[in-house]
Amino acid sequence: MGLLLALQGLRSPALDAFFMGVTHLGGESVLLAAVLLLYWCVDKHMGLRLGLLYFASGLFGQFLKLCFLVPRPFLLDARLRAVEQALPTATGHAFPSGHSAAAGSLAAGLGLWQRRRWVWALAAPYALLVGFSRLYLGVHSLRDVLCGLGLAVLAAGLITALERRPGGEKWLFRCGLCGAALLGAFALLRLFGGVEQALVADALKTAGIAFGLLLGWRAERRFVRFEVTAPPLVQAAKLLSGLLVAIGLKEGLSALLGHDSPFMALGYAALVFYLVAGHPFLFQKGLKMAKEGEA
Fold this sequence. Notes:
- The protein is mainly alpha-helical.
- It has one domain.
- The protein has helices spanning 2-8, 13-24, 28-42, 44-68, 73-76, 98-114, 117-136, 142-164, 168-192, 197-224, 232-257, 264-294.
- Helix 3 (28-42) packs antiparallel against helix 11.
């Protein structure tokens, strides 16, 4: 707590605003937008790998959250006050830090798989800065942040090792399905064991997202096989339309089911399946119909 209390003494409105901006860079929306940009418009394989890494670290993190049920640091020590604007980003349990794991996943994936010095020079400070922002804002301890970053590195190593095995894609798919199923079952056990629904919701959503990602991956490989390359205006339309539909579906699901509903896991599975396989399929079909109409 000493480090967090020392950082609390350094706070100012300008620093609060700066680190809130930094912490949002490790949030779900920013990370998903980055993954989808790569997947839809730049490098389909790299985007998929980063998506797998992001959700693998999330699976590990949610297991630990449900195992240890560690409260946020500002709930453990009355002297510590979290920055008020950061409280909406501090749902669920504290250990490990989900923002740190997410930012670490993007940094570790790009750094390990691109193997360029300038990528590491940008990725490593980004992940460390997001982790530090969680300390400054008073919503995580140093242990939470270090574990979150470590989970990202661990997940990157496991994915790389599985890819190098004969039949690497099948191993990734099977291990991913098993991990998602185990997390979902464990979350339901904790729910029926008395843990508050709101505290289990994130784990169930993570399991649902993993299922949607894996099944969408399989459907895209077998039936869609969309082309990444396209003129800049077409790429922009693909990205913008996909993100707008994703935002609309997410908000609609939350309004219909409730943000903390266990059934949101099914909604998130359907949403991610659409993003991985459905949107590329529909966009590709739309372009084909437009070209045929012009002809």
